[in-house]
Amino acid sequence: MSAETDPFESLQAQLDDAAAYIDLDDGLLRRLKNPERILETNLTIRMDDGRLETFRAYRSQFNGDRGPYKGGIRYHPGVSRAEVKALSGWMVYKAATVDIPYGGGKGGIVVDPSELSASEIERLTRAFATELRPLIGEDRDIPAPDVNTGQREMNWIKNTYETLEHTTEPGVVTGKALDSGGSEGRVEATGRSTMLTAREAFDYLDRDIEGATVAVQGYGNAGAIAARLLSTETDATVVAVSDSSGGIHDPDGFDPAAVREHKHDTGSVVGYDGTTALTNEELLTLDVDLLVPAALENAIDADLAERVEADVIVEAANGPLTPDADSVLTDRDVHVLPDILANAGGVTVSYFEWVQNRQRFGWTEDRVVDELERVITDAFDGLTEAYETYDVPNFRTAAYIIALKRVINAHAESGTWP
Ligand code: NAD
């Protein structure tokens, strides 16, 4: 893990790589590399023991040229201004890669939620929602879950907003529970887009995904569901997975759903029957057909990238490779399918949820799954077309070319004012 790489610099380097293939005004490129605005705030809440505690929080609104700002809220001790800026920028280019009408935003609170009680997390979430209230709204900025947040936090944000605004506006956040205006298929959407991207990539590269060996780093919402769907819907063989406590390996494969149960019961994947332990570094350098990083950014640096044995990497996490790792893997002909396509299922089904909220009309799960498959496969086809047309060295640059062009067009069509 490379702690030094600033994720915001990674985002800017990725944009520069793609911009080199496009005729683009320098001033506009600077705009497209920097957030429009950032809220930085300090949330003070009363803890269960009566003490007051203050937590730093951020919301970055990166770019709204294609629609309302959209992006998750993360609760993690490592949240920083640079991380939130990067994550909000990746949301802009992710929404544009899959062509859904959103801009990008991201937020976070510097907190380790495992050290807080449920009622402290609720007070913290409601305090953040109160600060966010003037900025968010279904036509302005629409938060969603990210690391360590889920349906529960989204329901609290919606309720706080609606109470303060004296209205009902379920589309103000996505990733809600079904009875609070959530969508069928949202929970598994990110993992589904990772599975679909892997399936399309193997087909494009003329490789069999059936029986392909898979290692997954990170076994939360994105990783565990990607592992299960790769196993059940493409017949790939999941041979190794890990979480923050360590990894497990069985060269003959195992049932990812049963491993998730084990993690649910014991708190970790480690110790699952019939597997041997391995470190995260061993997992990332395992000789497999497909590697899925699904934990946090900067998981693979240049040194590790030299030792990666996988043939294909599909990024379920946001920004799991440093730019140096990306260059090493490009030079070594390891095919990397970028996060802004491979985990775009989350924002895509968030978009479907928002559409359903605005129409006050729910879709069936089959409809969500079918529409998501269409969005991801169309985006994949666009990406491979750009990869060939522009003759770029990797799929990431191709994705950023498509995304940048869409944002540039939206900006040009609107005009610059004043
Ligand atoms: P999560 O909290 O549900 O899961 C994260 C997992 O990573 C946990 O199993 C944790 O133990 C593991 N982990 C943390 N540090 C690790 C380390 N050093 N080594 C190995 N494992 C480690 O979070 P999530 O929602 O699955 O998000 C994971 C990544 O996917 C993030 O980059 C997030 O931004 C991205 N993502 C998530 C969604 C979504 O809808 N959940 C959408 C798009 C992108």
Write a concise keyword list for the protein shown above.
5-stranded mixed sheet; Rossmann fold; 418 residues; 15 helices; alpha/beta; globular; 12 strands; 7-stranded mixed sheet; binds nicotinamide-adenine-dinucleotide
Ordered list of secondary-structure elements with their pairings:
Blueprint: H1 7-19, H2 26-32, E1 37-46, E2 52-63, E3 69-76, H3 81-97, E4 104-110, H4 118-132, E5 141-145, H5 151-165, H6 189-204, E6 213-217, H7 221-234, E7 237-243, E8 246-249, H8 256-266, E9 276-278, H9 280-284, E10 290-293, H10 302-307, E11 312-314, H11 323-331, E12 335-337, H12 339-342, H13 345-359, H14 365-389, H15 395-414
Parallel strand pairs: 3-4, 3-5, 6-7, 6-10, 10-11, 11-12
Antiparallel strand pairs: 1-2, 2-4, 7-8, 8-9
The structure holds nicotinamide-adenine-dinucleotide (NAD).
Nicotinamide-adenine-dinucleotide is lined by residues 145-148, 190, 217-223, 242-244, 280, 294-296, 316-318, 343, 346.
Your description of this structure?
This protein has 418 residues and is an alpha/beta fold. The chain has two domains: 37-180, Leucine Dehydrogenase, chain A, domain 1 (Rossmann fold), CATH 3.40.50; 189-341, NAD(P)-binding Rossmann-like Domain (Rossmann fold), CATH 3.40.50.720. It has 15 helices and twelve strands. A hairpin with a 5-residue loop joins strand 1 (37-46) and strand 2 (52-63). The mean pLDDT is 96. Bound molecules: nicotinamide-adenine-dinucleotide.
